[in-house]
Design brief:
The structure is a homodimer of 336-residue chains. Chain A is an alpha/beta fold and 336 residues long. Chain A is built from 12 helices and 12 strands. In chain A, the strands form 2 sheets. Chain A has a 6-stranded parallel beta sheet, with helices on both faces. A 6-stranded mixed beta sheet of chain A has the order 7-6-8-9-10-12, with helices on both faces. In chain A, β3, α7 and β4 form a beta-alpha-beta unit. The first copy, chain A, binds a DNA duplex (16 and 16 nucleotides) through α2 and α4.
Chain lengths: 336, 336
Amino acid sequence: MDQIPGHRVTLQDVADAVGVSKSTVSLVLSNHPRISQETRQRVLDTVDELGYVYDRRAASLRTRQSFTIGLIITDITNPFYAELTSGIEHTLLAKNYIALLGSTTDLLQNQERFFATMRERSADGIILCPAPGTPPETILRLSRQLPTVLIARYLAGVDVDYVGADNELGTRRATEHLIERGHRRIAFVGGPQDSSARQDRLRGLVSILEKHRIPLDESLMVTCAVTRNGGYTAIQQVMRADDPPTAVLCYNDVVAFGVMLGLRACDLEPGPDVAVVGFDDVNEASLWNPSLSTVSATPTEMGQHAADLLLKRIEQPDRPIQQMILPSTLIIRASS
Amino acid sequence: MDQIPGHRVTLQDVADAVGVSKSTVSLVLSNHPRISQETRQRVLDTVDELGYVYDRRAASLRTRQSFTIGLIITDITNPFYAELTSGIEHTLLAKNYIALLGSTTDLLQNQERFFATMRERSADGIILCPAPGTPPETILRLSRQLPTVLIARYLAGVDVDYVGADNELGTRRATEHLIERGHRRIAFVGGPQDSSARQDRLRGLVSILEKHRIPLDESLMVTCAVTRNGGYTAIQQVMRADDPPTAVLCYNDVVAFGVMLGLRACDLEPGPDVAVVGFDDVNEASLWNPSLSTVSATPTEMGQHAADLLLKRIEQPDRPIQQMILPSTLIIRASS
DNA sequence: CTGAAAGCGCTTACAG
DNA sequence: CTGAAAGCGCTTACAG
């Protein structure tokens, strides 16, 4: 039953015990049809009896398929990525795949290490949320070496599978909503300067301001670390201006949570005093007090789609590049 | 530079290009000292030139070390596990290991699948938060097959490496605090019925009630799903009783968040009307409104310790079993 | 200081 | 229906 430490039960051991060749055992395990019912049963029984464990790494050396993928994200502690990961895991489990996890904290150096790690371990593919500043060539090279799907952030001009939210549409809707509520001075807080997601979200805001001929005040467009603390600090700075905003559109929910706390620290109540809108709609958003108005990016679904896309790409390397933009819906709650 | 799809650059290719044997290349890559400086440099240059990628799975077939571990937790979407995972990742990164991630949602069936998955992929070890109801023999067998460390939940009588919080001490302190504040009717909400963590936390509460000769009311000790929603539903049930509690000690922070929301749904303000205390001190806890009093279980540190322990066990299989109980401190905030 | 050879545990044509 | 053999890409004694 139990293995002797150091000695692994192999196909050969099973074959010896049954009195057939290891080819036969291998064929049984891969459900090959032309093994007699009797042999098959004896093999299966012996597999159980000896506690044989299939060595997928040995198999993958021959078949070149590891049933393992690499998942490279920014930070598992950000609920957006946790929900994303959960969706990915869900899809992988059903297909017998599993993910190697790497959090880069948006550091290019970590990202490079994870690329190497995943390739050395022969991942069948990679789901990647690229760190801001990733050179496009890096991704192009990677995607030639390994099936790759980008998630949540893309790189301009890089033709690779991608799944993300409709960022611009999302902030357009959010901005229209704020303007309808009478806001004219709308701040934008947070996001990694060079990420596609930030640029698209900011563009949505700017375009709607233009449409309504509301002058753009650059001093209200600030960046900050994508953490609660980042939002907390940044908003206090912004509110100190001579003509502070009456509404703030945040890069994402995590920043919005920080902004709400920062407003309170300035003795302002998020909602009544200053409107706050987030992006993502992580589970937490509806539970805050006040509940957070936000643009839904459906992270769990996004993860499922990314995993689906990757598995399709693995099966069919020549299929056309697919870029999925998931619809964004505005969810109005108490904070705006 | 780039590989031809399907063809992997191997040691042999590098050897051929340099004009040495693959043994020599291998020795260079493992930094073996007795290769001449000149050969070494030529090999290294060629490795770069050809874009050689080390095949760790082939290597591990010989060396029996994959530099990969399995991480099996309940739910990555629960911030406690996300912070745990972040701590684990941090330690692994420094030692060139990486984790295969599996979320069981506390289903034994998923857990079994992950055990198989991790073994098939030759993980060097496993960090496991066992699903409630896991038979002790399962863990014993697993730990004989593979270095194993349990995290956050242990199994009575199973002598395996373990890292967890001092659960009983934590809830003792929390209960003393509530009693000091004048509470007599204290509910306990949530937790997987058969988990060691729940039992220990509940025991802490009960022992302090006894110490103060406060009668125990079983109807106030309820269980629920370990989600915000679980706490939300459970507390509303509890508050409907004839003699409802004035304070509630929650299995963990996630349940406590749900409880706070549930109280509001009953028109009760957490803090002033009903005291609420959580367990874990996830990052979110200090940010809620009201901020959540809780017992700190330092999830990030817990993760780091678990990874350290596993790596030590891998290096030194015969070292004595180590069970680390991390000190619990009570953090009093606005909710109590 | 360097190379030839065996072997890790599988799969997969190819024979029979 | 089943087996012998080659090979996936490494490492590691063993010679020289």
